[in-house]
Amino acid sequence: MKTPDLEIQLKTLPNSPGVYQYYDKKGKLLYVGKAKNLKKRVSSYFNKKHDNARTHLLVKKIANIKHIVVNSETDALLLENNMIKNYQPRYNVMLKDDKSYPWICIKNERFPRVFPTRRLIKDGSEYYGPYTSMKTVHTLLDLIKGLYPLRTCNYDLSKEKIESGKYKVCLEYHLGNCLGPCEDKISAETYHDNIDAIRDIVKGNFKDSLHRFRSQMKAHSEAMEFEDAQRIKEKIDILEGYQAKSTVVNPSINNVDVFSIVSDEGYGYVNFLQLSHGAIIRSHTLELKKKLDESDEELLAIGVIEIRQRFNSQSSEIYVPFKLDLGDGIRVTVPKLGDKKRIVELSERNAKYFRMERFKQTKIIDPDRHVNRLMAQMKSDLRLSVEPRHIECFDNSNIQGTNPVAACVVFKDGKPSKKDYRKFNIKTVTGPDDFASMEEVVFRRYRRLLNEDEPLPQLIIVDGGKGQLSSGVKALEALGLRGKIAIIGIAKRLEELFYPGDSIPLYLDKKSETLKVIQQLRNEAHRFGITFHRNKRSSAAITTELETISGIGEKTVVDLLRHFRSVSKVKAATEKALAEVIGPAKAKIIFTHYHQEE
User: Fold this and answer.
1) What domains are there in the chain, each with its CATH number?
2) Sorted alphabetically, which PANTHER family does this protein's record hold (predicted)?
3) What are the tens digits of pLDDT across the range 26-52?
């Protein structure tokens, strides 16, 4: 029950957009959220039962509610994002990526320097970025320096000091890397023309620079200055080569941000592509740790605001895979077809690849996190009430009813537990009856576990469709375990998953980790069962001929095969050699059996 204080606070909340904060009884900030309507959103936490355990625990801890009213939902998003980063409340989505990124700085100087930096100083300088890797920054700066020679010294190149002859050109000038502004060998106006062209390049617009270089090349050619024309042509080639490396989408798509998201039970991955003049000039994926079972819509809204702030994006339009409400300042487009749709799909593909890389890294660095995520994913995908930490899978093997056997393989935390594998000889079924065989082995397996007080699995998988599943369910009913252990069947043809009492199968994504684990279980059960069946069949084939000899029992057959290694060697052995192993009386019987015609 809510305390009276909370009830009063809920009743007096405004119906306006804003940000709310939950505090515990010690005054510690638990959670920050944003809302279109503060009263409706906050009240919803207390008016319904929460399936998510963490949300339920959060609501129990809330002792005080504060709020801030803002003008629009966009303002609420921005404020929420800033407060989460500043206070890092326990129950809010966690930004996993908080490192500082490199920028390209055009210094606020008479002859500006252009250089990389990770520190933003508010001195009137221009900063472009941030970039997701320093390698990208160096590649871009190498391109710029190859096209436009710029100074690298940090002298104060004021007009008075240059006219007074205070500075002399350095080695960079003689190497052709600098045009010598320190001795007034290039005017401030010409230098700034180069800086304007550099601004366009770092923004992804190569068109003006290419046009300018082509005009210069043509002018040099007409003046018979072919060496100068060749130097300009080399610059054009460099610029065109760099531009070709960008993914050209569609020249009509200009200054647009593209966002997409993929998520699992524990994390969301928001990918960002920035488009300028028809080309992708930036890509970045943000990892968000869920805290309260947040939806993809909530995570994507957080990701959009965070990334646009971090990369200082001024784009007025964004493309996303589904509708988002980000306020009036941003135009949200959900493309349905064409190049716009393809670029959103490209963003989704980048997010998926990022998630796969994270999975692989996590398996190595933090196996426990990988297992926890996988178990939570399987619980969700298979609609289970608990995580399937212990899974058992059954498979029958027989050829036209001969030597019927069954296998049970066990996976714990998503990995094979081979010491727990079990194989069964079918005892009560005659002929090739897979349904009855499945019922027998499931019954025997769990009757034994119950008798020995061993832990039961959270999930049973039977290899087969509705028939084998019904047999497994019958066995569980006979033991009083129906409803206590989840049981499903997997049919081989289309990888359909069947549930008791449901005629419509469940189809999982062919690439899903849950299906891969189930397939691994099924394949392992099949392999283990077939191996047992083959061994039993070959053992039967070997021993049949010897055991049919009157007066020769199983122990004698075993002794003979252990010594002679094969039936053919037993046939070829002398009576004396046989007698040394099994005694003269039985040796005479076997020798006579094989040599009676002689």
Assistant:
1) 6-87 (3.40.1440.10), 106-244 (no CATH), 256-363 (no CATH), 374-535 (3.30.420.340), 549-595 (no CATH)
2) UVRABC SYSTEM PROTEIN C, UVRC/OXIDOREDUCTASE
3) 888 888 888 888 888 888 888 777 767
